[in-house]
Amino acid sequence: MSTTMSTINTFSILLLIATASLATVCPDNEFVPDCNPIEPTCEDPLPHPLKGCPTTGACHCLPNFYRHNGTCVSADECGNFVDGFNAILLDAIDSCKANEKWYACGRQELTCLSIRFRFHPIMMWCLRPGCYCADGLVRDEKLGCISVNDCPKTT
């Protein structure tokens, strides 16, 4: 019995080590986003939106870093490489407020007002990365991201 448990424990540890080694390790100033939109570069800090958002598991530059010659550099560094570089500042990953989530592929949010007027945009394009209401929530101007049931009632 103890030999069987020992074999199971050894197998479990080996499986855990193998799984951990499969995780993508990114270089400095990079991370693996929830999807992979077109990455900003020093030459093109605001790339065109992408239809849909593929998930590849590849490393991308952190918000407010730009790809240049294969590495992610700060806006200040881009200014050294590209004349007239104009940074596009994005929400930092850890800057989201309550009930918000950072999405690499920005989304068209529903709002209490759009729900009231039955306007439901169809999400086809990957918008600017940043903080958006978490799934299942809508944005209210004053209250932030809330359940649709908590939207203020009109009189």
UniProtKB/TrEMBL annotation:
Annotated keywords: Disulfide bond, Protease inhibitor, Serine protease inhibitor, Signal
Signal peptide positions on this chain: 1-23
Top-level division of the source organism's lineage: Eukaryota
TIL domain mapped to chain residues: 96-151
A Pfam family recorded for this sequence: TIL
Record GO terms (molecular function): serine-type endopeptidase inhibitor activity
Protein's UniProt keywords contain Transport: no
InterPro entries reported for this sequence: Ser_inhib-like_sf (IPR036084), SerProtInhib-TIL_Domain (IPR051368), TIL_dom (IPR002919)
Keyword Disulfide bond on entry: yes
Gene3D superfamilies: Laminin (2.10.25.10)
Protein name listed in UniProt: TIL domain-containing protein
Gene source species: Panagrellus redivivus
Lineage of source species: Eukaryota, Metazoa, Ecdysozoa, Nematoda, Chromadorea
